[in-house]
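Let's practice the habit of predicting before peeking. Look at the sequence and jot down your guess about where helices and strands might fall. Then scroll down.
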Amino acid sequence: MAIKLRDVTQVIRSKNAGSFILTFDVIFKENEVYKKVKEKQLINRDLVKKLYKVSDDEILDVIYFDDALAVKFNIKRKIPSGNFGDRDIYGAQQHAPILDVVLEL
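Done guessing? Here is the structure:
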């Protein structure tokens, strides 16, 4: 069964975790869907690399957090927050690439 991530989550967001790191939260609506995603490891380093065009070195972690039905991942910012060329000082607009991800459950 193919589903869009945005259809089975209540929150998908990004924000700064300091000046040099972006953190992303994907919080699911239902435990059953979260468990399937976790079991198959559908949100993983390879997906993050593809969506955000980063290397393994730039991905700090991908963490499944059962109590919150959530997946969190962190990547290094290409441009530190507030530096010349930064277009999103708060990191709050970086989640867009993950919104249209289709998962095969």
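How did you do? Strands lie at 2-4, 9-16, 21-28, 59-65, 70-76, 102-104.
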